[in-house]
From TrEMBL:
Keywords: Nucleotide-binding. This is Ras-like protein Rab-5A. The lineage of its organism: Eukaryota, Rotosphaerida, Fonticulaceae, Fonticula. The chain holds residues 84 to 254 of 283 of the full protein. One of its GO terms (molecular function) is GTP binding. It comes from the Eukaryota.
């Protein structure tokens, strides 16, 4: 039996929701208050251990800010095994946009892709605009994994990636 798996994971979501920040937190344990939108590298890698003893290494693809122009080429998610669609819990318009990314993935991405919905900026819950109930109901209806997290405080960041790793069938 194999014990090591490598998967392509793409980050999607509106500009400024914290995609690069989640990746930077997960991969390097860092957070920057003023993250540059162009920082998105081709990809970063990080591994997680699954409960069945396997190791999953993610090849994380971040954007270099192209999402601002709604022009992410399908090339970006071609061959992706998993996608994390991010919104900002303090900005309802980013949740609307996240739903449209989910629809696009459902139409265009590989059929067995694992999709996680991540509500970021949980530290801003005092100015929350998207309730956890609404987002988790939407996720359940669409068979998405769902986690609320904060790249700033590191709350649940690793959990997003661990849930994805656990959800991928290993055969
Ligand atoms: P991207 O455009 O989706 O890649 O978003 P960035 O990672 O560049 O983040 C946009 C802005 O939101 C930056 O100023 C980040 O410091 C900030 N940010 C990212 N994650 C969080 C978070 O969890 N909480 C708070 N309060 N700010 C965050
Ligand atoms: Mg970015």
């Amino acid at each position: 039996n194999r014990s090591f798996f490598q998967y392509k994971l793409v980050l999607l979501g509106d500009s400024s929701v914290g995609k690069s920040s989640l990746a930077l937190r997960f991969v390097r344990g860092q957070f920057q208050e003023f993250q540059e939108s162009t920082i998105g590298a081709a990809f970063m890698t990080q591994s997680v251990q699954c409960s069945d003893g396997t190791t999953v290494k993610f090849e994380i693809w971040d954007t270099a800010g192209q999402e601002r122009y709604h022009s992410l080429a399908p090339m970006y998610y071609r061959g992706a095994h998993c996608a994390v669609v991010v919104y900002d819990i303090s900005d309802a318009s980013t949740f609307t946009r996240a739903k449209s990314w989910v629809r696009e993935l459902q139409r265009q991405a590989p059929p067995n892709i694992i999709i996680a919905l991540a509500g970021n900026k949980l530290d801003l819950s005092h100015s929350r605009q998207v309730s956890e109930e609404e987002a988790s109901a939407y996720a359940a209806e669409n068979k998405l994994l769902f986690v609320e997290a904060s790249a700033k405080t590191d709350a649940n960041v690793k959990l997003i990636f661990t849930r994805v790793a656990e959800a991928i069938p290993k055969s």
